[in-house]
Design goal:
The protein has 163 residues and is of the alpha+beta class. Helices cover 47% and strands 22% of the residues. It has 8 helices and 4 strands; from the N terminus they run H-H-H-H-E-H-H-E-E-H-H-E.
């Protein structure tokens, strides 16, 4: 899968695991040549992968989809109303079983690069399909419709992580 290969590039420490999980395709061979891998080093790496997988040493890591959401409230929204909006959002963890992990809170960085976003959350899903169930879920849509008018801006990004 293309996503698993992207994780290999982003997580070189886990590259043996990811190559084991995805095997070597022609596309990967091209990418490996760009990082100066020779056919011999690929053969050695594959031998190590076979050895590790037979011993169970590769671990139980898996890809998960991380869904990041950041809120920028309008200035006129009261602190109590902001807290209620955040509480509404956090409550989705108990209402939508496809959300495997949900964390976040107030922006606390002192770097001054928050661009006015005051809250950030990361929701973890086991797959794109699980995320696709979450997006139109009635509980999610209720929170969106209730709180969207309070926001000046909203940032949503996703990435593949490892657990």
């Amino acid at each position: 899968m293309q996503v698993q290969w992207a994780a290999t590039i982003l997580c070189p420490i886990d590259s043996i695991y990811w190559i084991k999980a995805t095997f070597i395709t022609n596309e990967m061979m091209i990418k490996m040549k760009k990082i100066n891998a020779t056919p011999l080093s690929v053969s050695v790496l594959l031998s190590v992968v076979v050895l590790l997988s037979s011993c169970g040493a590769a671990g139980n890591k898996k890809l998960v989809l991380r869904h990041m959401v950041a809120f920028q409230f309008k200035e006129e929204v009261s602190e109590n109303r902001r807290e209620q909006a955040v509480s509404d959002f956090l409550a989705l963890k108990d209402l939508i079983p496809e959300i495997k992990k949900f964390e976040g809170g107030d922006q606390v960085s002192a770097g001054g690069l928050d661009k006015g976003f005051s809250h950030c959350f990361i929701l973890t899903f086991e797959s794109e399909e699980a995320r696709d169930i979450y997006m139109p879920h009635p509980a999610h849509m209720e929170v969106v419709n209730k709180n969207k008018p309070l926001l000046n801006d909203l940032l949503v990004m996703e990435y593949w992580g490892v657990e």
